[in-house]
Amino acid sequence: MKITWIGHSCFKLEQDGYSIVIDPYQDDSVAGLSPVRETANEVLMTHDHFDHNAVDKVKIEKNVNSPFTVSAIETYHDDEKGAKRGPNRIYIFEAGGQKVIHLGDLGCELTDDQMEALVGADAVMIPVGGTYTIDAAQAAQLTVDLDAKYTIPMHYRSVESEFGLPDIGTVYDYTIRLTGVMVTSIPTLDLDEPYPAKVVVLQPQNMTKQFMSIGDLEKMSF
Fold first, then answer.
1. Domain ranges of the chain
2. pLDDT for position 82
3. Could you tell me the pLDDT band of residue 211, with boundaries at 50, 70 and 90?
4. Residues near 162 by Cβ (< 8 Å), separated by ≥ 6?
């Protein structure tokens, strides 16, 4: 399975010629990212907010049978059972013997039953910027607890490439709390390929400015 970070919380999953786009953002809603203009067989959103709900920006093709089994866990966008920001849906994708999780804008603690359903996945996409979601410290602890083969941070602000919402934190606040971090210069993680670290920082496909130099990438990888 291939996982491509379009930008913000938007990803594209691909397996056996079938693709799913998750959480496309509205045009001009996230600074430093070009508009979402994808073609896929399916589009999903974890919640109905402007930076996640632009399903009309994805052109749908229906001519391929899906190899994915998709299930969902209902959670909250905040720590007051949705009173502040409403519900959030976690998606679990299974295909080709691999399990991938998109946590959406998770803003609450998970129950024991929810953790049991999520633990030990091949890849988890996790929000780390705080303010509207769990913060960097909570995300780092959840990364350890879920113990996925790979974890991909999302929903954060980058100073270098000037993308992201202005009032959320950077990825460094998250990665500094963890060991085994790899920063890549590409937007795609291929689950059929080995990677030398469990936390993989991708570069958004739709970013409008270069993220880092190769030298900076080497300093960041540890």
1. 67-220
2. 86
3. low
4. 31, 32, 209
DSSP state of 33: B
Query: Which alpha helices (DSSP H) does the chain contain, by range?
Result: 112-118, 136-146, 172-175, 214-220
Partner residues linked to 39 by β-bridges: 59
Q: Is the pLDDT of residue 214 over 90?
A: no
pLDDT tens for each residue of 17-48: 999 999 999 999 999 999 999 999 999 999 99
State the chain's mean pLDDT as an integer: 93
H or E stretch at 42: strand 42-44
- For residue range 117-142, list pLDDT tens digits in order: 999 999 999 999 999 999 999 999 99
Fold for the domain defined by 67-220: Metallo-beta-lactamase; Chain A (3.60.15)
CA-to-CA distance for 198 and 183, rounded, in angstroms? 11
User: Could you give the strand order of the β-sheet that contains 199-201, starting from the edge strand earlier in sequence?
Assistant: 69-76, 87-95, 98-102, 123-127, 150-154, 199-201, 181-183
